[in-house]
C-alpha cells in the first residue's frame, strides 16, 4: 500500500522492494453439490452458495520481517497462508514473491521455489509421516531438491541440534516424540532448505502452555539467527504479540486492521480489534476485575452469505447507516501513522 | 467460608488398568466447593483434571475409583448406578469441551433438553418442551421457541455450547462441572460464554467446578484455584493469592511461561524445560522434580529428597503447597513490578 507515502507529511524514504507482496488475494470455494447433476430438479438448488473464504487481502512482507495474521476461526487466515505457499491456487489476485508473481505458476515451476517457501503446521504429529524417522523427515526436502543422501543426513543432524534436540533422536519415529519435540522436528524440516519465508500456521496452538513457551522462544531465536521472514498465523493475540513485528487482523476474509505491533496493541483503531483484545483473558485476577470489556453479540457470519457493507456491522457496537451499505477500504486513519484500518469510524474518533 | 461445602472430595484416586500395568491418573486429590463459588482446576494435558471431573460425576466405568465424593452430605462413591442416575442431571450436571460430540445429532436440541425434564420431574411432553424453549431463551439463544426445533449441526460452536449449558441447567442442579467449556471457542465467543456462566451462577447460587488449561480464564472466573500436575494437586489457593504469589515452582513456571498481553516482550519467555510426565512410569518423588528449577538449585541432599519422596500438601500462608522446598516463612516477592 502506498497510502502512507501519499499522506501530507514528510515523505518516508522509499522502502526496499518487499520480499512478499500480496495484492487483492481472493479464494472462493465452490458450494457443495447437494445432488449429482442427474438428480437435480427444478426448484432445488444443486449447489450451496460459494464460500468467499478470502475476499481481497493485500499486504507486504519485507525480508526478515515477522507479520502476525490474527483472527478467529473461519476468518480466512489459514487459507491466506496456504495460498502464499501455493498449497492452494488463488481464485484471484497476485502473490509476488521476490519480484515474481507465483500465484499462477504450475507445480513444476514452483519446485525450485519450494526451497525458499516453507511451512510449519499446527498439529505436529499429523504433519509428520509416522513411518519415517526424524532423519528422513528432515532430510526429505533436501533430497527432493537434489542433495546427496549422506549430506542430507549430516544436515539433518545439524538441524536437530539447532532446534534443541539431540543427534540420537535422528533414528526415532514421530510417535516416540512428545508434542513439543515433534513440533521441533516440523520446524527443522521447514528450515532444512534455508528458506527465506516461513508460513507458520498456528505452530504452538496444539501444545501445552509450558511447552508452548519453549517453541515460541525457539522461533524467536531462529528468526534472529537465520533471519527468514515469518508469516505467523494464529488466533492467540498474546503469542502474536511476542513473536511479531507487525500484525494484520482478519475478519470474514478481509484485513480490518494492520500496522506495527506496538500501535495496534496499544491503541487498536478497529472496533473488532478492540473487542478481540478486550476478550483475551489476562492471567491476573485484579486486572481482570478492573477491566472494561467490549462484549460482541453474535458470532462470525457465514462467509457464504457475508453481510452487505462492512461485514462487521451486525456485531459492531458503533455501526451506523453507512456501515450497512458501504464497504470500508483499508486506509491510513491517522496521517503519518504506520497503521491502516478498514472502518468508517475508527478509534479514536476524529474530533477535528 | 462459613457453612458446609456443597461438594467435598477427599483422597480421590483413579486408577486405570492398561496393557502396561495400572495407571494412576489421579492420586490423593481433595477439594471442596461451596454454593455460589467457583473452583478452577488448572493443569496441562495428562494432569488428571478431566479424570477428576468424570470421577465426581461417577462416569468412570473401567477405572477403579477410591476416596470420597460427598455432595450435600451424601457419599457418592460406591453408589449404585440407579441412584447416581437420579443425581446426575438433577443435582449435579456437566458441560463438555466439544458440544457437537456431546449432543445427539438425530434429536432436536429442544427434545434433548426436554428429555431431562421428563426423566427427572416426570413432566408432560408439552410442558417439558415449553420449559426447554424457556431455557434456550435464558442462555441467550435468539428466537428460542423456533430454535428448539433445530438440530445440533444447525448451530454455531458458541450457540451449541449455550445449548449444552441450557441442558445442564434444565433440572436446576446445584453443582455444575464445566470441563474446558470454552477451549474450542474463539475469544470473543469465550467471553460471552464465561459471562453467561457467571450470570447463571449468581442467579442460582450454583457451585461451579471449572476445568481448564487457561490461566487467564481461571483468573477471570474462579474464586479458588487448584493446580494439578501429574495426577496430583501441587497447589491450592484463593485466586488472588495464587496469582500474586505462586508458592509451587510449577505454578510459578506456568505463569512465567505465559505470553501475556499486558507485558513487555523484550525478554524471552521463561519456559519450563522438558515436558509433562508420563503417568505410565511415575517417579517415586515429586513429579515435577525433573523440570524443577528449585530442585536443580538445591543442595544434593535436598534434591534427593525431591526425587525420592512424594511431597505432601501442606498449608503455607493461605496456600496449600506440595513442595519440599517451599519456604514456609519467607514471603514470596510479588511477580514483577506491576
Automatic annotation (TrEMBL), chain A:
Keyword ATP-binding in annotation: yes
CDD domains with a match to the protein in the record: ABC_NikE_OppD_transporters (cd03257)
UniProt GO molecular function: ATP binding; ATP hydrolysis activity
Listed Pfam families: ABC_tran, oligo_HPY
Domain ABC transporter, first and last residues per copy: 20-277
UniProt GO BP: peptide transport; transmembrane transport
Keywords for this protein: ATP-binding, Nucleotide-binding, Transport
Transmembrane stretches, start-end: none
Protein family per UniProt: Belongs to the ABC transporter superfamily.
Protein name: ATP-binding cassette domain-containing protein
Organism: Streptomyces klenkii
Automatic annotation (TrEMBL), chain B:
Any single Gene Ontology cellular-component annotation: plasma membrane
UniProt keyword annotations, A-Z: ATP-binding, Cell membrane, Membrane, Nucleotide-binding, Transport
Compartment(s): Cell membrane
GO molecular function list: ATP binding; ATP hydrolysis activity
Gene3D superfamilies the record matches: P-loop containing nucleotide triphosphate hydrolases
Superkingdom of the organism of origin: Bacteria
GO-annotated biological processes: peptide transport
InterPro entries linked to this entry: AAA+_ATPase, ABC_Ni/Peptide_Import, ABC_transporter-like_ATP-bd, ABC_transporter-like_CS, Oligopep_ABC_C, P-loop_NTPase
Bilayer topology: Peripheral membrane protein
Transport as UniProt keyword: yes
PROSITE patterns with a match to the protein in the record: ABC_TRANSPORTER_1 (PS00211), ABC_TRANSPORTER_2 (PS50893)
Annotated ranges, domain ABC transporter: 7-255
Matching NCBIfam families: oligo_HPY
Record family assignment: Belongs to the ABC transporter superfamily.
Name of the molecule in the record: ABC transporter ATP-binding protein
